[in-house]
Amino acid sequence: MALVLASTENMPHEDWLEYRRMGIGGSDAATCCGINRYKSKVQLWMEKTGQIPDSEAGEPAYWGSLLESIVRDEFIKRTGINVEISNSILQSEEYPFMLANVDGFCQHPDFGTCIFEAKTASAYMSGEWDGDNIPDSYQLQLQHYMAVTGAEYSYIAVLIGGNRFKWKGIPRDSALIEVLIKLESEFWDHVQRFEPPQLDGSDASVEYINQRFPDSIPQTKIELPDKAVELIEQYEVACEKVDKATEDKQYAENSLKQMLGENEAGTVGNSLVTWKNVIRERLDSKSLRAEHPTLYRKYANKSSHRRFSIRAAV
Fold it and tell me: Do the beta carbons of residue 19 and residue 6 sit within 8 Å?
């Protein structure tokens, strides 16, 4: 069973974002399971702990919300199934950290009250909707909603590329829900303890590390654990691959520039290659400091960052 945590009718967007930080929503489920290609667990953790803005406040979320009514009305028109709009943030009674902000509810002849979810998708993602398939992230979102509400069935409708409409029925998967609850519980424990999940190579992990340790203590040195040897090897191998990839990229770029010569653009197949003049004005700080030192000191900004390197120990 689900409890009504708050009504979203006429709720300011900023308040809605605050409620999102109080638990894990359906759109967070894929990230908690580690399959979200656009967001890492560390980024989600930083959002839930208020260290960075919630990414759900962005442009895609805005347009998805704006087009929701169009997708819903088309679903009703094509199926004859009525959808009751939901204006509530729901909370699992058994697992209070699990929240649901569903688009609507409808009735199924065999399963009773079920979930309705409206989506929009780029034409480039149409393959993920072939046959009975839906994107994994939406499968997890719907199973999350069914876990919160106790529903046995869900409908999902999608407008693809602005001109293709599809809808599908998704039954409850109790085994998947069991795994989902376990992974979300583990993630929420990190939020409550204000301890990040395992760091990865994401920008969010970089930002967390830089915020957590902004300055070094001069003249300090420690003995690193044995695991550091493996990490150093991993770092050096990755650097070699980056160098090789950079060289390959530069070779291709130089060859294409040679083909263009003095021409600004060239085409081949479906590709347009350009090499244009770009004019920028840049302050000559060196001359300014030499000719007007007082003015330079007045407007010069000092910044500090920590430089990372690996070299042979002395």
Answer: yes
